[in-house]
Amino acid sequence: RRMLSFVPSIVIVSQEGINLNTIIGIGAHLAFWPWHMIGSGQLEVAVVGYKSVRILTLYSHDQQPIGTIGMPLMTPAEQLAEAFLAMGKPLNASL
Predict the structure, then answer these.
(1) Which residue has the higher pLDDT, 71 or 68?
(2) 13-54, pLDDT tens digit by residue?
(3) 70 backbone dihedrals φ, ψ, rounded to 5°
(4) Mean pLDDT of all residues belonging to the chain
(5) Which H helix or E strand runs over 83?
(6) Angle at the Cα of 59 from the Cα atoms of 76 and 50, rounded to 5 degrees
(7) Is this prediction's pTM over 0.85?
(8) Which of 37, 92, 25 is nearest to 66 (CA)?
(9) Residue 78 and residue 85 in contact, taking contact as beta carbons nearer than 8 Å
(10) Among 2, 14, 32, 79, which residue's Cβ finds the most Cβ atoms within 10 Å?
(11) How far apart are the first and last CA of the chain?
């Protein structure tokens, strides 16, 4: 089950993996998925209320969902696809 909220977050895609930093009140929630845990990704657009957002779902090697990240539409899908390709991971996009 997915729950989307519009809490300020920062997504970092690096050589080590994908990092999600979310500011919650005076604290923060940090999530990290190293590339060796990621088997593939799925990028899609979801409509939440009156907003469209990109949803990146990360899957393990046995195709179990391991993380879901909401991203603004202005995030370049091509750059994300290039990052997955560089790490030898497939990214399926239904945009």
Answers:
(1) 68
(2) 999 999 988 877 777 778 999 999 999 999 999 887 888 888
(3) -90, 135
(4) 86
(5) helix 77-86
(6) 50
(7) no
(8) 37
(9) no
(10) 32
(11) 21
Instruction: Tell me the chain's radius of gyration from C-alpha atoms.
Output: 13
Side chain identity at residue 68, one-letter code = T
> Which of 19, 1, 25 lies closest to 69 in space, CA to CA?
19
Assess contact for 18 and 58: CB atoms under 8 A. Answer: yes
Q: Is the distance from CB of 76 to CB of 55 less than 8 angstroms?
A: no
Structure confidence at residue 7 as a pLDDT band (50, 70, 90): low
Mention every residue, 6+ apart, whose C-beta is less than 8 A from residue 77.
43, 54, 93, 95
- CA–CA dist 89, 85 (Å, integer): 6
**Tokens (6 digits) for 79:** 């750059």
